[in-house]
Amino acid sequence: MRRGSDLSSDETRKLIVEIIKYMLSHGVSSDVAESIIGTVYTLIKESPDSCLRDAREFSSVLNACGRMGFPSYGLALCMGIRGVIVQRISEIAGSYRKEISRMLNWFNLNRDRLRSLKNIYFISLESNFDEKMLSTFISIIYSSKMVPTDKPIVSSVLTRSGKLKISCRAERSLVKKGINLGLATRLTAEAVGGIGGGHDVAAGAEIPSDSEEQFLKILDEVIGKQISGGNNA
User: Whole-angstrom Cα distance, residue 196 to residue 180?
Assistant: First the structure.
């Protein structure tokens, strides 16, 4: 099997064109489809046949180690340890991809759970998945347009400690309208006895498990005020 690095420049161009055509034919926006083209950073000291040679893949592997509960393997990689550990990390990354696939399959079967409030969308994962996977899940379904992006999306999952973990995402175009998820999430979480914060396009919180509806109501109102010009509401 040939790898991407084995392709000639002409073959690479043809492959990119066909991938973009395929994405467009399946309803993906042109901006998202064209985003597959970008800068590639090659770690030249890594083996040519290693998944670690591409800096983006290296980053993905480190992320998988953390999400799947094996941070020590990621640390070992960063310390330069290779050999048998690379095989183990490959297995962890494979398990991570399978978990993502399982989450997306669940979502496709439970799209009716997506709620539309005035200023936000919301979907609860309840206790179906590990809390460490929440931000990955919401990032994928939002960035890939599996859900509408005309409003921010909020998702929750029950943690092992009995709290609710919250994750939020917003398009950059919504930020230009006044939305700041980090501020909105912090204010809302504090109002229900939790903690929260983050960036304008991505934020999170941890709140008492019985305060979900109150959290959503307040967050919806706060974001509405941000859109109307009251960012510090």
Answer: 13
- For residues 53 and 47, the answer to whether their CB atoms sit within 8 Å is yes
Burial class (CB in 10 A: 0-12, 13-18, 19+), 63: middle
Given a contact cutoff of 8 angstroms between Cβ atoms, the answer to whether 188 and 219 are in contact is yes
Amino acid 14: pLDDT: 93
Half-sphere exposure of 20 (CA within 13 A, CB side): 14
- Rounded to whole angstroms, the Cα distance separating 107 from 14 reads 33
Residue 129 pLDDT > 60: yes
What confidence score (pLDDT) does residue 230 get? 58
pLDDT greater than 60 at residue 39: yes
The token pair that represents 72 in the structure block: 């020590």
SS (H, E, C) the chain: CCCHHHCCHHHHHHHHHHHHHHHHHCCCCHHHHHCCCCCCCECCCCCCCCCCCEHHHHHHHHHHHHHCCCHHHHHHHHCCCCCHHHHHHHHHHHHHHHHHHHHHHHHHHCHHHCEECCCCEEEECCCCCCHHHHHHHHHHHHHCCCCCCCCCEEEEEECCCCEEEEEEECCHHHHCCCCCHHHHHHHHHHHCCCEEEECCCEEEEEEEHHHHHHHHHHHHHHHHHHHCCCCCC
CATH class of the domain defined by 110-227: alpha beta
In the chain, what are the domain boundaries? 4-98, 110-227
**Burial of 142 (C-beta count, 10 Å sphere; 0-12/13-18/19+):** buried
